[in-house]
Amino acid sequence: MPFTIVTQGTFTQPATAVNQIIPLPSSIDYFKTINYTQMNLAGSVCVGGEWFGGGISAQNDGIRWTKAGSNVINMSLFSTATASNGFTYVTSFPAPQAALTGTTITNASPAVASVTNTYSNGDTVVIYDSVGALMYSGMTFTISSVSGSSFTLLGLNTPGSAATAFTVRRVNQFTPVEPSFLFVTAITQATNAQVTTSQINNLVVGQKVEFTIPASFGMVQLNNFNQASSKPPIVMSIIDPYNFTINVNTSSYTAFAFPASSGSPTTQLFATIAPAGQAATYNPITMTTTGYNFTTVPFRSGVFIPYMYVPAGANSPGGAANDVIIYQAYKMETGTINGNGT
Q: Which end of the chain has fewer CB within 10 Å, C or N?
């Protein structure tokens, strides 16, 4: 049966490749990507991917077209490939799920949580009742590298102690206003401090943010009332989806660190940031304002449903650094793709 293209486009990965969310105008039956950059090169990379609807392609899966050091094309499933993630088609906001009991969260960079689950890459979860690591118990995280037995917390790097048990629930990953307030997990002492959040933050250059940092975390000098004229810090650059730099020199500030788990709950609290506008400059001669973009921040609604989640990586459909990716989404004119009416 014939297909109709319902949307198509391209995206170019930045120097640090990031996972992509492709909004789709309607339900789709077929989705594909082509790595235009790598297609004519002889490397061990994914050059194309295909997702099939009707229940054929599972979450975080699909057909993978790869090269193995030559121009010979090989085919496999993302689910059977090493170090790669496939497509996840999201048709509704994830509803809060029943609580799951996990066994460990490593004190590593990044931290890895072990729990039997049915989650997907990009899902948002709340971790609480963590034994041995109460300092982040109650925080919200974006998860990645999901398997049926674990997931990775890219926004949590070596928090100070491992958890020996925890509870987790998947929650709605989008709020009515983006970016929302976020949990801070790290801040460097640097000329332009680098900030890490527990979730993909969706911030952009020029965003103003307001910090609320409890004394138990250190670096209270970054709280806005301690800044010159109480001016909110401004996002200067985006490192990756979890990390950004600000226009504040924190070299002489008190070091930022999680408090010890043993201090909770009296020292637990959380370090957070919230959107506080965006940087703009008004020229009274030309009567023009520069630096303000109504389409970005603040404030904008969350991502529309449905969308295709396309993970980044040399062996994944989103491609690696600087790759140009072409995508197309198709809808069948009649019938269903698997032919059995489901």
A: C
Q: Which of residues 60 and 172 earns the better pLDDT score?
A: 60
Q: For residues 148 and 118, is the Cβ–Cβ distance under 8 A?
A: yes
Distance CA 188, CA 335 (A): 55
Domains of the chain, CATH where assigned: 3-92+305-332 (no CATH), 100-171 (2.40.30.180), 182-260+269-290 (2.40.30.180)
First to last CA, the chain: 16
149-171 mean pLDDT: 93
CB 48 within 8 A of CB 32: yes
| Whole-angstrom Cα Rg for the chain | 22
CA 212, chain centre distance (Å): 22
Mean predicted lDDT score pLDDT of the chain: 85
pLDDT at 341 over 50: no
